[in-house]
Amino acid sequence: MKKYICIHGHFYQPPRENPWLEAITHQESAYPFHDWNERIHAECYAPNTQARILDEKGLVAERVNNYSSISFDFGPTLLSWMESKAPDTYQAVLDADKISQEKFSGHGSAMAQCYSHMIMPLANSKDKYTQVYWGIRDFEFRFKRLPEGMWLPETAVDLETLQIMADLGIRFTILAPHQAGRPSDHGRQNGQLDINQPYSVSLGAGKSINIFFYNGALSQSMAFENILQDGKCFAEKLMHTDNNGGPQLLSVATDGETYGHHHKFGDMALAFALKYIENQMDARLTNFAEYLEKFPPEGEIEIIEKTSWSCAHGVERWSSHCGCETGGHHGWNQKWRAPLRQALDWLRGRSNSIFEEAGKDLFKDPWAARNRYIDVRINRYDRDTFWAEQCQSKLEESEKVVMLKLLELQSNLMFMYTSCGWFFNDISGIETEQILLYAGKAIQLAEELSGEVLEPHFLELLELAESNIPEKGNGSQIYINVTKKARMDFQV
Q1: What φ, ψ does residue 457 adopt, rounded to 5°?
Q2: Which of 67, 226, 255, 285 is the most buried (most CB within 10 A)?
Q3: Which neighbouring-strand residues pair with 300?
Q4: 320 found inside a domain
Q5: Are 260 and 341 within one domain?
Q6: Is 474 helix (H, G, I), strand (E, B) or coil?
Q7: Is the pTM of this model over 0.85?
Q8: Among the residues of 144-283, which ranges form H helices?
Q9: Is residue 417 part of a domain?
Q10: What is the largest CA-CA distance in the chain?
Q11: How far is the C-alpha of 16 from the C-alpha of 415, rounded, in Å?
Q12: What is the Cα–Cα distance from 99 to 283, expressed in whole angstroms?
């Protein structure tokens, strides 16, 4: 068999919890649902566990778990929400990975994801490591195996992140074709990148990581055109691609929400296409890990650092007014992005100093303790076990409180860099309000731990981030409004 097909879904929602309540409050824009997690779950995540395939009379002939036949990654914080609020769907996702191992030569289709969807090339080295480590540990806890692949948020890539991933046992990731640099002689077709084969990226010291490049044109048509209106048409699009004469992988990658949320009945189109392909003799469904085992890379490639799949200017969408936006608002700009990041960077820097100073006499190694804190967050370790491993000596209860505050400070500092905070058109959007809530919680904890007053300077920096909506004012005003409401909700 020469042709292999892999459909990847990146399933993700930003964390939405009020950090004081640790629960999601009512989001009016998600009407008629309580919040956006509930809405998208009803439109996409749940339907894909029992996707309908209709017969010629339009009656339901079969229900299938789409996740078992595709490649996928789920955001760890989304899975955490799902475990509590949608346990049947959560279990179906876990079961799908087990089923996929039976289908694909022992290789599960689930991939890990960097924990809080931070744009990795813009992160500092310590945050990069923790994001990868937490993503792996969370995956291992839920899927009961180590991940072979890891999804990079927005496919934003740099060599340092790839090095960390490889050091922690990750074998591959997925990038867009335009993120490919210079390939070796092998793998060129008429001087061009061969996206139907994996490549190896050298990381020095004899280490490397494997890269798959998805079909960009076909993936774009799936996400933004009408290809999912007809499951058979979708399947034939996947199958009828040029064959180079040898084994080849046709892979596509989109947001998983494409299948049902962005495109109504997209889950049904996907189910039909998967069934149609399974019944063909000249094509076979696979996942990236299985294909990598069957056909290891023969060529090497360089990657273009600080690039992503959703910004034509590299990773500027998360730091500047680069021109990338979601449309619909004539005359708006995103000049607020730079001062927002500068304000958060200042807060992170000051808070990290507080963390190190307060933690040096409590933790054996404050940063190692932060990394291992994921085991407490996912209830893998009880706190007493964690204290015994990470503290320098037997702790008083008051010291345990300080250590817990220090670690929660770090959690909130990382959550405030969730990529959605910069992705959309205005600083007043709910996604940016959410990361400001995490900043507010981080400020509260840092001030309690240090006795310093940090918020006034933070507000000064945010004043430079002006909203496109005059009545919203600037980042400082938005921060005050959203954090005040969140704290009132907590007090009630």
Answers
A1: -70, -40
A2: 67
A3: 200
A4: no
A5: no
A6: strand
A7: yes
A8: 159-167, 216-224, 231-239, 266-278
A9: yes
A10: 72
A11: 10
A12: 20
Q: Cis peptide leading into 32, omega within 30 of 0?
A: yes
* Consecutive 10-residue averages of pLDDT for the chain (492 residues): 90 95 94 96 97 87 95 97 97 98 98 98 98 98 98 98 98 97 64 88 94 94 88 89 74 95 92 93 93 95 96 96 87 96 98 97 96 91 87 87 96 98 96 97 97 98 97 97 82 53
441, 416 Cβ separation under 8 angstroms: no
What would you report as the CA-atom Rg of the chain, rounded to the nearest whole angstrom? 23
Contact indicator for 153, 114 with CB cutoff of 8 Å: yes
CB 234 within 8 A of CB 269: yes
Q: How far apart are CA 474 and CA 485, in angstroms?
A: 17
Structure tokens given for 444? 């509260």
**Whether residue 297 has a cis bond before it, omega within 30° of 0:** no
Q: Count the residues in the chain.
A: 492
Question: In 15-83, where do the E strands start and end?
Answer: 51-54, 60-64, 71-74
- Measuring CA to CA, which residue among 27, 300, 312, 20 is closest to residue 181? 300
Q: Tokens 């009408």 map to which residue? A: 226
Residue 368 located in a structural domain: yes
If asked whether residues 341 and 263 sit together in one domain, one would say no
Token pair, residue 453, equals 């007053």
If you count DSSP H runs as helices and E runs as strands, how many of each does the chain have, helices first? Answer: 18, 13
Residue 317 lies in a domain: no
Tokens 């060129």 locate to 188
CB 223 within 8 Å of CB 259: no
Instruction: For residues 402 and 282, state if they share a domain.
Output: no
